[in-house]
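Quick start: read one record
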Amino acid sequence: MILALALAAFGYARTLPHMTDRTAFEAGAAAIEAQSSPQDYEAYDRLYETYATPRNQIKRISLTLAAVAAGAILLFHRGLNGLISPANKWLIIPVGLIASGLTAWGAIQDVEELYGMAIIPFWSGADAATARGVVFGIFPMTLLLVGLNAVFLIGQKFNFRTRLIPINLRKANLFILGELIITAGMTLYAAWYLNYCSLLSAPLWFYFYGSILAIRAQAHGSADRRVA
């Protein structure tokens, strides 16, 4: 239902114009760039608010809701008890690698989306700053986390195909549980600021960390979580 409403709202947003007066907006933006050194971001924000229609806000809200709903469907389409870890470790690790790549792409694409909607000025340099942050920070850090978690799996005897819910907190590895909590926090942050591209990796991260958490907890004594 939420996904259908979000897509309907997105369709409505596409029928609206970007600006009430595109020519006046572009002229004002060019004037701010030419007259200000450094450029006046507050003046640009006021200019945007003067000419922008609800199109972009409706689009961002609807796509954020759609991303959240699609992620929930992906994870829970078989119900809570149907969320089960992969059959072996070689299926878990690729999930983390794909999530890492999606995280890097989402961070860059969210900024590109803001450029495309003219929410941030083209002269801001936010794209270059984001790209540097992704190349030198986000991407290698997420790969490192995937690698550290892979080390937990290699050479160990675990029972895979384990139920992820409920989490046995008494048997949970605190490091992995912390990663899962941080993932939840970052997902809420992305949703609050309508960074819908960044949300696309969230279900993969939840599944990746949740699977490792569950199989390690099962290995430490929660045999009742084993799926036949």
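Confidence is low (pLDDT under 50) at residues 222-228.
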